[in-house]
Amino acid sequence: MANVIDFGALSLATEASWYQQRRPDVKLTSYLTFRLGEEEYGIELLRLREIKKMLPTTEVPRVPGFVSGIISVRGIVMPVIDLCERIGLTPIGRDRARYLVVSRNEELFALVVDEVREVVPLSDAEIEPAPPMLARSEAEFIAGIGRRADHGERLIILLDLDAVLRFEMRRR
Fold first, then answer.
1. pLDDT (tens digit, 9 = 90+) per residue, 46-62?
2. How far apart are CA 41 and CA 23, in angstroms?
3. Summary mean pLDDT of the chain
4. Distance CA 42, CA 32 (A)
5. Domain tally, the chain
């Protein structure tokens, strides 16, 4: 069964796996959607490790402005990246903000998002490339635009998580 998430002895079917059973000819990828400012964004669900309520961060000197600090989750220390700050948006209301704990290779990061929305399965046909009029620098974090056929004009900006997590911290 496609898109089944395995948690050891417990395997959970996803909405995408249900659709896959009904339309085996269509490959679906599940995305977790969330709000940043006024817009809806998404990342591949398989990159997500967990969703956490906000925790106090420990500030770290001489880091990029979008790195809010570090947190410890079950003994693992990870950098906190404010996604609004990282991609150049103004946060609007942080009362529903959450951390998305994501992975890049074996390294974990906590991404601050304004609000977690839902899991949305998208087929390859429902994902468009970023509009060509965007300069390369503006589109560097965009993997594509999701447009669900059954949701009218709903657009989901799909983030290139590897690009978002690619940055250097100075070491002395």
1. 999 999 999 899 999 98
2. 26
3. 83
4. 5
5. 1
Could you tell me which residues come within 8 angstroms of residue 78 by beta carbon, excluding any fewer than 6 positions away? 70, 71, 72, 101, 107, 108, 109, 110
- Collapse the DSSP code of 129 into the 3-class scheme (helix H, G, I; strand E, B; otherwise coil) and give the result: coil
User: Helices then strands (H, E): number in the chain?
Assistant: 3, 13
Length of the chain: 172
Residue 30 resides in a domain: yes
User: pLDDT (tens digit, 9 = 90+) per residue, 98-118?
Assistant: 999 999 888 999 999 999 999
The contacts of residue 16 (CB under 8 Å, 6+ apart) are 2, 3, 28, 29, 30, 121
90: exposed, middle or buried (Cβ count in 10 Å: 0-12, 13-18, 19+) = exposed
Determine, yes or no, domain membership for 169: no
Please tell me whether the overall predicted TM-score, pTM, comes out greater than 0.70 for this model.
yes
- Asked, for residue 3, whether it belongs to a domain, the answer is no
Task: State the pLDDT at residue 157.
Answer: 93
Question: Which band of pLDDT confidence, cut at 50, 70 and 90, is reported for residue 2?
Answer: very low
Which tokens sit at 95?
């009362």
Residue written as tokens 């309520």?
Answer: 53
